[in-house]
Amino acid sequence: MKSDIDLLILDYIDGSITKEQEVELFEWVEASEQNVEYFSQSVAYLELTYTSGKSEKYNAEKGWKRLSDKLNKRSILFQMWQSYGKIAAVFLFAFLMGYGVFRYELIPAGEQLSQDYITTEVPLGSKSVVTLPDGSRVWINAGSAMSYPVKFDENHRTVKLEGEAFFDVVTNRKRPFFVETEGIKVKATGTQFNVRAYADEAFVETILVKGEIAVNRTNVTDDELVMHPNQKLTLYKDQAKKEHAAHHDVEKEEAEAPKAPKNIPLKVKKVELTSNVRTDIYTSWKDREWIIFKEKFGMLAQKLEKRYDVKIKIKDRQVCDFAYSGTLKDENLKDVLDVLSITSPIKYEFDSKNVTIWYNPKFYDSN
């Protein structure tokens, strides 16, 4: 039975699990505390073997060979694991090799985290999926970092986020789930929501897809706001410039938006709660099809920078106000820029990791 469960866990991580298999897996997980612990630890260890920031996955066959070379082939340990074949190689090799690498190399320099915490950093141009100790899943966007304990506290589950992430939280009303990020603290008991809190952007944003969450501003008492599905909460920063003031400044006329100092309350000039929003517009960044809807190029440029790991310089300010709608599916950056230049009055130059955009007045002559 355990080997069957291991196979289901592998399919779950790989994304190839069917709906029926997923139901079977989680019925087994929920059957006992031991199963929950086995599942969460197995998934955590297995995910460590995925190449950070790349699409390549862990090669179980090579891992098994490397592991078997280290073990005495006559030992009981080897005979026991050999019967499980490649599945055993993945889990044991992850435990012996991946776990230490993950815990030490991915903790950024200068970060004062204890050995009981794990930090996942996702570089620009990448995305990552993490399964937390309670089985909750988190999709982490490019240029983001999330830290969480190896084992959650008995009374609460707390993670710290810098950047953007989508949370699918396992329901547990006795142990609320908290996300602490720049300026806000989100409380959930079991729900799906998206948090966007990049230091170089002019806002902090929370989107609720399913369930219910409560949002508090950091260090502000009596400020709890309860959100319901299809609502968007936006906190506009007082100290940051508007959309076009990130890395793609208009000919450097404006300085880059400053990063908010850590441990200092976020200065907010405006709080906005919007209902009946299309949540997929704000969460599809994690999916194969990325939905863009009435997005001004000033904000779109910031997202393109993170998604494709490039620097975008806008030479003409008016380009920032052009709005775009559409769906991108596995397109590379050049394909995206080609479509934008065909459908709107812009031209671009693309050199390695640098993109220059400017207004094209001749666009209307040919249309």
TrEMBL record:
Pfam families: FecR, FecR_C. The keyword Nucleotidyltransferase does not apply. Residues 294-357 form the Protein FecR C-terminal domain. The chain crosses the membrane at residues 83-102. GO terms for molecular function: sigma factor antagonist activity. It comes from the Bacteria. Keywords: Membrane, Transmembrane, Transmembrane helix. Residues 124-212 form the FecR protein domain. InterPro entries: FecR (IPR006860), FecR_C (IPR032508), Ferrdict_sens_TM (IPR012373). The keyword Transmembrane helix applies. This is FecR family protein. It comes from Sunxiuqinia elliptica.
